[in-house]
Amino acid sequence: MNILRRSAMSVVVVVLLSTFACSLSGPGGDPGSLEIPEYPEAVSGVEWEWQAPEDAEITVLPIPVGVAVLDGEGVTALSGTTGEELWEHHEPGGEVVGHVSDDGDRLSLHVEGSKEDTVRMLTLDAVTGGLLAEALLEPGEEGMAGLRDPSAPAHGALSSSTEDLWFVREGDTVYARDLEQGDERWSVTPSEECEDQGSLGDMAIVEGAVVVSSTCHGGEEELYVESADFSSRLIALDAESGEELWRDEGRYGLFPAASIERSLSVYSSHLIAARTEVGQSTQWVDASTWRSGTIEDGGLRWVDSAGERFGVWDSAQRDYRIQDRGGSVERSLREGAAGSAEMIGNALRPDPDAYVADGVLFLVDQVDAGSGEDLLGVFEGFGGTVDIALDGGTDRELQEAILAPGAVAVPYVDGDGRSGVLGLS
């Protein structure tokens, strides 16, 4: 992903459209009738399986009741505990992409229909599937291709939103737009403060604030120079006004490019983590208090519901540990440190596919049909190791696992080309 390039795409909300009767099934409006499951603490087997319609290519996203499965024409919500279909919203003949808001409350769908150069943005309640808002966008020449590109400005509207505003990153500027009228509410360009050059990175919405990562650096020729002078910043802006609430400045990453490409994740609704893949370190911020800290020897992968206990993966040591905010380790998979030769070998081994309170899950890439049970993966827990198997008979190519309320959801494509989801817990 090239965060440095400036996109020429313009994103404009033209008009708010009237709410219409969407294709809902299931509870669809009574949140009290829907179970909100806890996240699984360990994995011991396959609890459920769901198959997508034939010829559908799916994307799986976590939502409060389980998972949302996007199939190109719409979305189906599945219970995380049972795999039961809870509700669905489809746009027959439309081309749909979507994302869940950073706080997990809303599901944004972008729908491209027969009318050229326009895209409808639908905002659904992520629990019930009820339609909250609908607006018309003009995504410019790139169309839906731009909406699928995480570096494109319009993509920000898929996840960066509040109840009445949505936010896009265009070039080095963050724009806030009104969902009802489409008017620009405010804009901020963090790079204007940099002495030389500045690059805007990822952003996330948490506790009524827009948190953006920004890096000041000396230019493109220094992006991968470890000795380069650069400053990594996290800046929190009030979502309603754009006024600065808080900031942290330091040096995160081995070189400027690693700082620019930091990924932001929201945990427990109020804790945000900025993780660098190169050099593996994590900066965390509690948006309810603006207290912050840094994990230097591992990547933050799991946070408990209170935001107090962290699951940290150290790829060099092949170790997963649970620690508190101050760094005190409660338990760890590994006893003793790895030597230099072992660490070199560890660098070539894959990281886990899912991280939970009691351990980590490793999955195979391909399941070949056979008699009896087929091994899907292994759960390495603090109390021991468990093989995860499924009744044989079907070839499956496993895709990226998703930690969701009620299950670790594993999308797959079987030998006949049909997509589906396995629920592990």
Share of β-strand residues: over 45%
Q: Tell me the number of strands.
A: 34
Number of helices: 4
So what's the overall shape?
Answer: globular
- Percent range of helical residues: under 10%
Structural class: mainly beta
What summary fits the major beta sheet? 6 strands, antiparallel
Q: In whole angstroms, how far apart are the ends?
A: 33 Å
What is the overall pLDDT average?
82
Low-confidence stretches: 1-29, 141-157, 341-346
Could you walk me through the main structural features you see in this protein, from its secondary elements to its overall organization?
With 425 residues, this protein is mainly β. 5% of the residues lie in helices and 48% in strands. It has helices spanning 143-148, 156-159, 256-260, 340-346; strands spanning 12-16, 46-51, 59-63, 66-70, 74-79, 85-90, 95-100, 106-112, 119-125, 131-138, 165-170, 173-178, 184-188, 197-206, 209-217, 231-238, 244-250, 263-267, 271-276, 281-286, 291-295, 299-303, 309-314, 319-324, 329-332, 354-356, 359-363, 366-367, 373-381, 384-391, 396-398, 402-404, 407-414, 419-424. Strand 5 (74-79) and strand 6 form a beta hairpin. The longest helix has 7 residues, at 340-346.
